[in-house]
Amino acid sequence: MIYLELPQNGKSKAKRKPPALISKPKADRSTASDKPVPKLESETIIFENARCKVTKINRDGEVFVVKTCQQPDTIAAAAGEWTIEHRILSELRHPNVIRLLDHNARLLALRLEPLGSDLGKLADESGISTMSPDVQDRVLCGISSVLKFIHRNHATRYGQIHNGGTPYYIPPEVALLKKRGPPGDIWAFGVTMLFVLKVISLPKGRGWLIRDIPKGIGEAAFALTRWTIEMEEAALKLPSGHALVQRMLEPDQQKRITAAEVLAGLTTPAHMELHPPQTN
């Protein structure tokens, strides 16, 4: 999970000290009158689908997030996904990556530091980004830094496409290669930046079934092709100074810019020139 401290209503969040662990407090010699029982003040479900649930909890003034894997019919698969995510978050040490505070293997739960602002909430009623140029730059720099770190340390899983995720961020190579890798992350980043830079509205809606894309036929494959073309055309409408984002949406993954190149390009004027569309 990528975490960015973005301003809300023009004000930055004050840093909280890390909350207590997820497990029960160790018994001590304090009496009930000496030490009050932690009070659960609020519990809000942030996200939930068939695979997981993310809950924001306020307990005794401390705020934290709990993510649980939930696939009751396939507990082995749920446990496998939980194990992978736990390993990844345990290995990652980056200021823009959600920090793992604690875990509970029996409940398939991960306790995480509070999430930052949801980019999707920084949009108007029509779905157009309301982010200022300063916030846009912070998103570009922050996510580039995280992706470079992750790709360099191989702290993720790649390979065969799986059913999870959001279809609007699936790269075009999935239809042909039946798999994805770091270039796919860059493609998804490019789509995100099109929204951040107010070129497209926030992608939302049911979309199409990801599991049907590798089959190469039917509505899913057609929808992915159509969406890819739309994103290529949208990239050509980018304002001056955003060549890096245009290169994130290169259809050929072999030619697509890398996270390291994005970071290098942020300080190189030559990379700021938009590339005209190539003709065969």
From TrEMBL:
Q: Which residues form the Protein kinase domain?
A: 47-264
Which region ranges are annotated with the description Disordered? 1-38
Q: Compositional bias of type Basic and acidic residues: which residue ranges?
A: 25-38
- SMART domains, A to Z: S_TKc
Keyword list (alphabetical) reads: ATP-binding, Kinase, Nucleotide-binding, Transferase
| UniProt keyword annotation of Repressor present | no
InterPro entries (alphabetical): Kinase-like_dom_sf (IPR011009), Prot_kinase_dom (IPR000719)
Keyword Nucleotide-binding assigned:
yes
A cellular component annotation (GO) from this entry: cytoplasm
What is one Gene Ontology biological process annotated in the Swiss-Prot or TrEMBL record?
Answer: intracellular signal transduction
Q: Which GO terms describe its molecular function?
A: ATP binding; protein serine/threonine kinase activity
* Name by which UniProt lists this protein: Kinase-like protein
